[in-house]
Amino acid sequence: MSSSAATSVSPPLSSTMQAFIAAMPKTELHLHIEGTLEPELLFALAQRNQVALPYSSVEALRAAYAFSDLQSFLDLYYAGANVLRTEQDFFDMTAAYIERARADNVRHAEIFFDPQTHTERGIDIGIVFAGIARALRAAREQHGFSSAMIMSFLRHLSEEEAFATLEAALPLRSHYADLWHGIGLDSAERGNPPEKFERVFARCKELGFHLVAHAGEEGPPAYILGALDVLKVERIDHGVRSEEDPQLMQRLIQQQMPLTVCPLSNLKLCVVDEMAQHNLARLLRAGLAVTVNSDDPAYFGGYMNDNYLAVAGALALTRDELLQLARNGINASFLPADDKTRLSNELEQFAATQ
Ligand code: HPA
Ligand code: ZN
Predict the structure, then answer these.
(1) For ligand 1, is residue 217 a contact (CB within 6 Å)?
(2) Domains defined for the chain, CATH in brackets
(3) Ligand 1 within 6 A of 34 CB?
(4) Is the Cα torsion angle 337, 138, 117, 168 positive or negative in sign?
(5) Residue from 28, 38, 217, 243 carrying the catalytic annotation
(6) Residues 186-226: pLDDT tens digits?
(7) What is the pLDDT of residues 100-159, one digit of tens each?
(8) What is the pTM assigned to this prediction?
(9) Ligand 1, atom 3: closest residue by C-alpha
């Protein structure tokens, strides 16, 4: 990501600004549920399922969370997911995430899950769906926390394997019609361009799913173009490298194509060297429909509010800009129009009382 900013120290965020961020109603549109597995729960599940871990303690595991790029993270992330074996494990992980999200005043979350990470280990895809969905439904019933599930294909695997995953999942669709609304594409971006998944995304479009894809995190702007023109996505996950292509920037502005930006993720995976160099504020001020999200919070050091706090401080965002980011999140969600209106009203009421 290009930036002329040298090392800079951002002033501490005022306590009123911190309170503003904490209380603002928010949406989460880029969250990998396997990336919410905190070391404590990971250890507990390892013990419950008698899975040996190559770490002696929670602290030792947490200390290993020092990444140099996306792949160095993915290696640990997939290894961590190995403790997930039963429906109850997926439930517990999802319930723990919801608790954290609710504490941050997240009202609605659209959650990625990677069935292939689990089916490759012999876990039935039905177990994955059932555990996640049970927690999401309980949160909706008990707390009015709304959500959607986005089944993601691993792009380091073949399109044929993505098709096989889709085939395995489709018989479950009617059981999860209230939640399963989207299809995504994640994992190692470089060397796995969107074009590799053209046919399976076309099939998913025919089936009526919402489509999103990771693009322009580590991959070039051409991957963002591919996601738009070949995969026909409705949102770009990350997309921060769009700034390298002025024509693409104009198109993203004109189409108001949402980007689900994940600031702490970008910092931890060395997409940026420092938060002060992050282009979120430039993209926002240029008129792009950027949103703030937490990606894999257990690995990247923070949930939704931590992400907002980090960018608000480092990029000197104003209250109006923070509100605009939250508005963008509501608009970019897959919520039905009525729900969007209700959530927008809540946000504008919050803004009016500040
Ligand atoms: N990028 C790509 N794949 C991922 C990510 C990410 O940030 N997190 C989990 N899978
Ligand atoms: Zn992601």
Answers:
(1) yes
(2) 20-352 (3.20.20.140)
(3) no
(4) negative
(5) 217
(6) 999 999 999 999 999 999 999 999 999 999 999 999 999 99
(7) 999 999 999 999 999 999 999 999 999 999 999 999 999 999 999 999 999 999 999 999
(8) 0.96
(9) 187
